[in-house]
Amino acid sequence: MTRRPYRLVRVLSSALAAGTLLTTAACSDDGGTDGSRVSGVTASQAAGKRQTPSPATTLTTDRARTALITEADIEDDWTQVKDTEADNWHDSLLIGRVDVSGFLTAKAQAADCRRLLDSLFDDDLVGRPSGASELRGFEQGDSRLLYQVASYERNDPQDSLNWMANLPAECDQFTVTDGGDQRTVQVVETSLPGVGDAREGLRVTVRGSTGGTQATLTLDVAAVRVGDDAITVTAGGLDGDENDSVEQAVRLGTQHLKDVLAGKTPSPDPGEVQ
What we know:
There is one protein chain. The chain is an alpha+beta fold. Helix content is 26%, strand content 28%. The strands form two sheets. A nine-stranded antiparallel sheet has the order 3-5-6-11-10-9-8-7-4, sandwiched between helices. It has a two-stranded antiparallel sheet with strand order 1-2. A hairpin with a 5-residue loop joins strand 1 and strand 2.
């Protein structure tokens, strides 16, 4: 596979050494699940007899911006960054060629794993939005959190959630090479609050070297569908676990989106959201 060129994209980053930018993102524990989740087989079943709500409003750019979370909605000491800064976050650890030799069904599995890394790098885990899309970035030490609200009315977001549900089995562990650097990638399922119409959570861990320096990048990623719209969260970095912040962002962010689609204004007080 030809190495993908560097370009300005919306992905998490954290500094490693001598100005090297590394994406930061999500963490989670080893495959814990929540009985209220819609994932794996249940996600596919839900897609087959899916009940899409009829919102009072469609998601416009202004409404998507209103549905974004704020610093008050996530735990710890996250600080919101300028939109232009979040737009340019990117991660060199996610670039590389997937080694197909380690897969039972090499071509298909390697393609799914490559798609995962590309989606994290390009910030389109649920696919390219077909309608309104807004994002917001936060930072805390060497960790980054990127939050997006988008409309997917012309490309079913449930298809992407079904694809995500299979990744812990398809891409359990694989190797990526980039020049002389070799990295090991692990993907496990994580639990999310039982919100939205369907949801999927993953922890992606990348261990290896970049520019001769050893590093471990841990990303917690989550996607929640509300009708034909969805929120996505990517959080983490070299410091590791940001799962609590992802869960908080998912819980309150989904409620923000539902309020906006119902023609309401999201509560500015996170304590008012049940």
